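User: Here's a protein and a ligand (glutathione). What would the complex look like?
Assistant: Let me lay out the input and then the predicted complex.
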Amino acid sequence: MRLFYSPTSPYARKCRVVAIEMGVEAQVEIIASSPMASGADLLAVNPLSKVPALALPDGRCIVDSRVICQFLDGLADSPRLIPTDAAARIDCLTREALADGITDAAFLLTMERKRPAEQQSPEWIGRWIAAIRRAVAHFNAQLPQRPDPDLGDIALGCALGYLDLRHGDLAWRAGAPALAVWFAAISTRPSLASTMPPT
Ligand SMILES: N[C@@H](CCC(=O)N[C@@H](CS)C(=O)NCC(=O)O)C(=O)O
């Protein structure tokens, strides 16, 4: 299978981390692709011109990191990154959604800050930063306790890594010291360490 990704995409990183944690990375050929270039190869897999996108050998295409992660999680019986128990599954996927929400706001902030200063919206910038700060505080208050990360934890690690990559000025660690310690520990896992975005 072919995974279209960009080295700085936190969504694509989440999928790559999941592939490594599942032990299926050898089955996944990673293909660097710039979503903004909208190349024909990426558009053939994802008409939205976004990464990540996964092309399967049988011609099927899977888009959106959450769907791709669910697909990868189903490739092996163990370890599973998404619990099968109904309540635990919803908890895990909710944490993934919240972490992805940090990434969503941070990505929008990145794109907005690239626009000419006079075209940027202070209202939206303020709203995205506030959402990031609230969600970071939420995770700091409900620190992951699992010995091995699940998909929600992986999504959180990728979201915080993206804050470091693009929005160091937000200094998220200042208001979330416990989360900072957790992040330092999870960042040493080979799956996260080997997919660290280039600075
Ligand atoms: N919800 C999607 C978001 C994917 C996404 O927005 N990826 C960015 C790169 S980090 C992208 O391709 N952006 C191109 C665009 O928005 O046109 C997912 O989880 O995969």
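Summary: The beta strands are 2-5, 29-32, 53-55, 61-63.
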